[in-house]
Amino acid sequence: MVKNENIEIAEKVVNLAQKLGAEQSEVCLLQGNQLSINLEESSIVKANSRSSTGIGLRVFIKKASGLASSTQFGKSILESMTKDAVSLAKASNPDPDNIGFAQPPDKYPEVAGLYDKKLANMSSEALVEFAIRALNAGLEVDSTFNIAGTINLTIGTKIIVNSNSVNVTSDNTFMQIYLSNKITKDDDVGVGMEYNFGRSIDEFDPEEVGKVAAEKALKMLGGKKIDSGNYPFLIDQRATRQTFNGIISRGVSAYNIIQGTAFFNDRLAEEIASSALTIIDNPLEEGGYGSRYFDDEGSPCQKTVIVDKGTLLSYISDVYTAKKLDIPNTGSASKQGYDGIPHPSTSLIQIEPGSATKDELFAELGTGLYLENGLMVRGGTNISQQVDVGFWVENGEIQYPVKNTMLGTTVYDIMKNVKLVGKDLLVEGGMKSPMVLIGPTKFSGGK
Fold this sequence. Notes:
Distance between the termini: 63 Å
Structural class: alpha+beta
Number of strands: 23
Radius of gyration: 24 Å
Shape: globular
Helix content: 25-40%
Low-confidence stretches: none
């Protein structure tokens, strides 16, 4: 089935929904396929292919919504799906804030690098070869490694069509390589993880992934307990990205504001973080892993400065939440697949650099911890987690990896206690992040 046929299918479903009584209708249609390679115990154990193709329909009738979806595109199946969505809308309670679906803009932004023909044409045999190359690179460092991991290649097309004349489509390629290397020496265990992700084949170096995962595992041998106490800590560039993406994604979502679960409710134009922090969501970055020129409602995407030198400038929103909160629509609607109701989410986080070199950051840290794993926001504002990849630092020099160490803090303390930001950015999949030094925080060392 070619792309033009899928656009025609989406248009026919929208038209049918209107004929059946829908006041507004929206189709999200995905056609795609994912190739996966799984590694366990230093061997390739499975290769599989699965479809991610499906169609989702949303309709509004008197501000009540109805949803239906299908993984098949046969005429009778689509007619049944459409009738179901309309019937559900007629039977549902209205929501006064349902103003309808996205309106077409005068012009969509242009975003290059979303699709790579070489990656799209990559065979399963070539993907297996990538896995072998990554695996062998790790075993060359030490043949006793127990290596596990996955390689996922996704090729797909997304189509959004609605009754307001939105009609957009985007071809996309994505690939991820992830390895976990485990090594045992006597009674000591070291685990190292490394990954590589992107939209074009030129971004991938499987040997480097295998080598780095192995080197990280070796670095974790010889772990020691530390005394409990309050210590400053420095997080590497990936950990910075993971930490602040988690906080921002949950903390400034307009949907979470409405639900009462956002961290920064009623804080627009207020200082929520250290003045050293500027955080941007930029789905327009060329070739960015989360880049896109329209969101999952068909609204145009935009670059949004969320935090500017510590001050909260914007929530991230979609059609519904923008109306509900009377704020601009940032074009951030997102959902996991083709069905369901979208909610606003960040697309591609970029953290502005500071002025400190790596040496200056370690010198300023003095005695404390250096972490290579991000802080995870799981439920509320408290953060309590094990330090999976961390090192004890004295006089600005790494001494040894730590073990049996817990960190306890809050979302607000992390945002406010940023003391220094590095000037060197890690750019991965269009995301940009520096190293960040955070002030004294509670660590339980178990010594």
